[in-house]
Backbone:
């Protein structure tokens, strides 16, 4: 039997090489990957943060595809991990007489962040074509002195051509746990499922095709007053936005939801929040990465 689906694996191990960039240590990495994963050239900012774009060379996912990503940050590392293009999930329901219900394409991501390390995982959006089935899972383990910033954007259908998700389904599960040998110390658990039913419901997406989540988990001893000030500043910025934005304060961090009609608006919104988070952490201001699309037409 000929296997027609992708099974791609990528392992990334980041560590501080203790080499000085001015007064800043530099994060470098070792990797191992199989198709369709490809790593683009990494760069560094003035804080020694490793900026690494990951590329999916197959152009999209179909039913049965499986991608597995493992990311480890050793002590004293700073990393911005992103992707160079949107993840396209093609339709699978009704395509096969053998399996008319279709099959899910899946991505599993395992992340481990050790002491005094900071990971920003900001991939481009997932586009679920009509009748596409997609299931993603993230398991994150983080130390008490480290932080994790994650954004997740999804577009249901190609609305510019009048397409919705139809019989497609998008599933996502995120689990974040603090490293603790004595007991399970859960920071955040989130599980969603989006389908045509949630897309058309007034109490759901109300025909707005773009949904996004941004989660920031800070160090355990991070100032609560700084978190409160961060939330106030974010609310001021988006008071007059045409999109729907909700913000919640977590025990150690914030949770943001976006609902709107434009992927570009969502990226712009999350970029502004990212700048605020970098500022409250005392890190350098982020720059819009050249590997991201539409960067030249966006003003911040």
Residues:
């Amino acid at each position: 039997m000929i296997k027609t689906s992708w099974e791609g694996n990528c392992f990334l191990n980041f560590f501080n090489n203790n080499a000085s960039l001015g007064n800043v240590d530099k994060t470098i990495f070792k990797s191992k990957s199989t198709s369709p994963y490809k790593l683009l050239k990494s760069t560094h900012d003035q804080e020694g943060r490793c900026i690494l774009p990951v590329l999916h060379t197959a152009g999209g996912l179909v039913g049965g595809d499986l991608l597995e990503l493992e990311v480890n940050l050793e002590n004293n590392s700073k990393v911005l991990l992103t992707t160079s293009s949107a993840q396209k999930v093609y339709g699978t329901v009704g395509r096969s007489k053998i399996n008319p219900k279709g099959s899910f394409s899946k991505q599993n991501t395992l992340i481990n962040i050790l002491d005094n390390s900071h990971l920003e995982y900001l991939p481009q959006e997932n586009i679920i074509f009509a009748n596409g089935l997609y299931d993603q899972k993230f398991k994150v383990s983080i130390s008490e002195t480290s932080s994790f910033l994650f954004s997740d954007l999804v577009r249901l259908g190609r609305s510019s051509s009048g397409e919705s998700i139809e019989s497609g389904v998008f599933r996502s599960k995120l689990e974040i746990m603090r490293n603790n040998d004595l007991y399970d110390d859960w920071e955040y658990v989130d599980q969603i499922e989006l389908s045509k039913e949630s897309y058309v419901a007034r109490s759901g997406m109300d025909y707005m095709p773009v949904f996004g989540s941004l989660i920031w988990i800070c160090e355990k001893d991070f100032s609560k007053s700084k978190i409160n000030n961060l939330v106030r500043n974010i609310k001021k910025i988006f008071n007059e936005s045409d999109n729907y934005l909700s913000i919640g304060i977590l025990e150690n961090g914030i949770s943001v939801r976006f609902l709107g009609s434009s992927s570009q608006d969502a990226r712009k919104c999350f970029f502004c929040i990212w700048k605020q988070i970098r500022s409250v952490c005392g890190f350098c201001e982020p720059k819009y990465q050249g590997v991201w699309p539409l960067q030249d037409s966006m003003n911040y």
Remarks:
- Confidence is low (pLDDT under 50) at residues 295-300.
- Helices lie at 196-200, 224-237, 263-281.
- The CA atoms of residues 10 and 33 lie 4 Å apart.
